[in-house]
Specification:
- By secondary structure, the chain is of the alpha+beta class.
- The chain is built from five helices and six strands.
- Among the domains are: 33 residues; 84 residues, no CATH class.
- The strands form two sheets. The protein has a three-stranded antiparallel beta sheet, with no helix packed on it.
- α2 packs across α3 and α3 runs antiparallel to α4.
- The longest helix has 35 residues.
Length: 172
């Protein structure tokens, strides 16, 4: 580690702690030459194993680029895509693994994409789940409808409870 003040290459670690996010390590360091103190943040590098067996560092931009194609012509903003990319990276880091097959990265994209846009989700899923017929689309559409119905039911149950809380609250 090079000192950011004098560029000397010999620094001493004074303290190491796991950061609040649990995915990185904060180190307090002291330069052995100029004695300035500084903090470094070390992240676990995520590695993607391609089908060919080659490995490369996870690139959030590359993941977003694939999703952008599925979102072509859909009402999805660049901010939406950036949030999705962050969600995917957070999910991968949260798994505690450092290496992922490329297919798992694609599958990790599906959950947040399902919440973002149904059509983009179906486009992306058709590639990563390797749909072979219209039946595969029908099965996925039915699964999507069931998921939306469960979300609506949970939302309505929550609002029913809220309404009950309001009606049973003492007036004053």
């Amino acid at each position: 580690m090079h000192c950011p003040y004098c560029k000397h290459h010999d620094t001493k670690v004074l303290d190491s702690r796991v950061a609040e996010d649990g995915c990185s390590i904060r180190r307090r360091r002291c330069c052995q030459s100029c004695e300035q103190r500084f903090t470094t943040l070390e992240l676990m590098q995520l590695t993607v194993v391609k089908r060919s067996g080659a490995t490369e560092a996870f690139d959030r931009g590359k993941a977003i680029a694939g999703v952008r194609k599925a979102c072509n012509g859909r009402p999805v903003s660049e901010d939406d895509l950036a949030r999705l990319g962050q969600q995917v990276e957070d999910a991968l880091r949260g798994s505690g693994q450092a290496e992922f097959p490329a297919h798992e990265v694609g599958m990790a994209i599906l959950a947040p994409l399902r919440e973002l846009d149904d059509v983009a989700f179906l486009r992306f899923a058709s590639v990563y789940k390797q749909f072979e017929s219209a039946d595969d689309f029908e099965i996925e559409i039915e699964s999507l409808r069931k998921h939306r119905a469960e979300q609506l039911s949970a939302l309505l149950d929550g609002s029913d409870r809220d309404a009950q809380d309001l009606t049973s609250a003492p007036s004053g």
